[in-house]
DNA sequence: AATGAATGAGGATTCATTCAT
DNA sequence: AATGAATGAATCCTCATTCAT
């Protein structure tokens, strides 16, 4: 009747199967997985503890053993997702350095394409984050603020990246372009979610526009390594 | 927040303020107003009928006389907001034609600025719409679809507009730029909501980038009327 | 949104179609028809004015113009159904007299068969009546009493009939057999409703058993008119 | 009617009487008791969760911990009642074998009388069951089907019993007589509920009639063990 | 004769959370 | 480390009924 029957967990088979008693880490993991999926689909208010309980296979009261609050549960989801996100970004940047893609513009576009591909693979994080951002709950939940923090971090990363790519361009412009990239990324992500628009195509448009804007603003590709 | 919103209608004050019967239109209006405000702030699941009832001054059961569902109520909100939106756009376009703003780029930027200003004045519509778009409720609510319809309409408007502005540019490019404008608008709107970023500045960046991109793609401003 | 659009009423086409204004009789009829159908299916508590309104095509408030209460509406349903019932019975008895069916037993069985056939044609009346009978609402509704009255009337009819058929048998026995017939009829009706059992077969069993019982109790078929 | 039904469990009396936690079985029992009483009186739609909550002394939300649905609650009521019913029947049959009641007919009548007495003592089960049977809700509730199952079981029991009692009689006839007994029992039960008719007398009539019918159909009491 | 609009009470069910074990 | 049971407040929505027009 309740979620007390453990569902077949998708863990590697090599691990000891006896999670049922006294294995906090695995339980915490299962809860976060479930919460991430549901919250990514339905937002903060749409996420009910009972559903998380059912999907994770743990009773609702166990969720409260691991997290003090629904609020903190969602905040933890954001946090964990962001860590995964950053990891992925790091990998991406490393690859970036490795392969040489000819002209600066082409290299820039390639980077954007890779971002799009990554985004398409972990859509839950951004979807939840944007929902949290848009909501104006009177009791500002922790989760929202946590996401906004990750947002700010992403933006300054981007700014630094652009400063490197468009070396010589004045900072105001690179900042504005960074903001544009972030905004347009969000927008294309939403469009992709809504109408199934191709994310990669969208990101390519962004790259083209940003590059043109930088050029129009006086930048010229003297040195290519970005 | 209580029933005092409605006019007292010259009735003995001691009585329990029985709302002037048989005035469906006004009531419907009041309900939609309330629902628009709340849903604009908190999204679909965050909007409770009781709160709408309190803000509109009508009992919850009366709401169900006017709308069969919470779903249909929110859908009606979207619809009405869109109508207001379109009206505002029309006014905007008329002004557009009237005033001559020098070069094509300046004229384009001016148009974008006006859009931003308008958006800043009616944020509820877009905020609600975006929240609906991001949610993935299993029983796809009417409201969401309604918003997506308005979205599609806006996009084709924009495409036609760009076709006029960048006469001679090939359609694929104008389409991609239209999508970029819409996406970046959404994104800057979200950023403005989240961090208080200046919407007008964002839209100016869009205008600059789009114009540069069009120019880079081969377009040149021979004729100026946009 | 409401039931204000008149559905195609199933009245004979010869009648003037302009029922829409000021034709109380037809409206009353439509309401009773709808109420009979719904109440026959779902019982007293299961019958909602709104549903009756929708099925009849008249707004709920109009129902209250014709009937003071839900209670009285259902009572009126019972009453009207009973009238139809009695009419049908009368026809049945007349036919009974007309055709001569050989032996007393055969004639009796034929009568029972006809009863079964009639019952199978108007099941709503008995179903509703039995539901009302079984319910023990604290505020005994009018409808229930009304049905019990019709019940008593039916029983004494039956007693008189048996007295004629089993002339010479002592009254106690005929009374008990009358009660048996009524009880078994109800029971077979329920079985038929529940499991689709053949009503006619059941009634034939009743006839057989009653006839045997009467015979065993000392009656012998000297005179045949039943 | 309030939370006082449960034992005080030696707790400081000033406190809000927090029910002794973790005693699911007793609570489930209390809920079923309350539901059985109310549903037996008022049928499915007439049974409100709030009333069950009040009578059982548990908050409405607790009922939903034990039963997923109103539907499943009522179904559980049926199930439990049937078990009690069967138990009582078993006891009854054992007594049947023990005492020797002279002639086959007298023995048969005695059995019927005992059934009547038992029925008179647990009227809620049959009353609810019959109400469920008569209702035609569009979403066939579980409870109804559950009752129909018990019905079918009872019928085949009865058939086997009659086959033993009227050994030698052809099966078609014993089946028809079994159906008659069940039907007439239901009918007399209803009559007893409605008008206070004596159930035992009714059942005696059934016994007499069935016995006469069997005899008339060619059966003769050669061996007496029933 | 009829009806659009309104209304308070109550319907079933879910909510986030607690706590004894 | 975990959980069965409980709980009050809130959820959306339907109820029978009323009344001005």
Shape of chain A: elongated
Please, how many helices of chain A?
9
Instruction: State the end-to-end distance of chain A.
Output: 58 Å
Major sheet size, sense and barrel closure of chain A: none
- Overall average residue pLDDT of chain A: 84
In angstroms, what is the radius of gyration of chain A? 21 Å
How much helical structure, as a percent, in the residues of chain A? Answer: over 70%
Q: In terms of quaternary structure, what is this?
A: homotetramer
List how many beta strands of chain A DSSP finds. 0
Kindly estimate the percentage of residues of chain A that lie in beta strands according to DSSP.
Answer: under 5%
Which protein chains are joined by the largest interface, and how many residues does each one contribute? A-B, 47 and 47 residues
Order of helices and strands of chain A: HHHHHHHHH
As residue ranges, the low-confidence spans of chain A are: 1-19
SS class of chain A: mainly alpha
């Amino acid at each position: 009747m309740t979620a007390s029957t453990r569902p077949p967990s998708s863990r590697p088979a090599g691990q000891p199967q006896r999670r049922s008693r006294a294995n906090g880490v695995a339980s915490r993991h299962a809860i976060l997985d479930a919460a991430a999926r549901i919250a990514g689909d339905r937002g903060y208010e749409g996420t009910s503890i009972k559903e998380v309980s059912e999907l994770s296979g743990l009773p609702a009261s166990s969720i409260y053993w691991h997290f003090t609050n629904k609020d903190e549960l969602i905040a933890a989801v954001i946090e964990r997702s962001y860590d995964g996100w950053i990891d992925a970004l790091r990998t991406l940047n490393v690859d970036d350095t490795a392969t040489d893609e000819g002209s600066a513009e082409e290299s820039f576009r390639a980077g954007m394409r890779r971002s799009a591909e990554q985004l398409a693979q972990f859509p839950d994080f951004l979807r939840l984050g944007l929902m949290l951002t848009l909501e104006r709950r009177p009791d500002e939940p922790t989760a929202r603020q946590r996401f906004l923090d990750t947002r700010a971090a992403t933006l300054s990363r981007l700014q630094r990246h652009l400063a490197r790519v468009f070396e010589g361009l004045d900072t105001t412009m690179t900042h504005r372009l960074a903001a544009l990239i972030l905004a347009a990324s969000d927008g294309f992500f939403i469009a992709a979610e809504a109408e199934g628009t191709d994310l990669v195509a969208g990101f390519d448009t962004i790259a083209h526009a940003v590059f043109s804007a930088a050029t129009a603003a006086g930048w010229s590709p003297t040195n290519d390594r970005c």
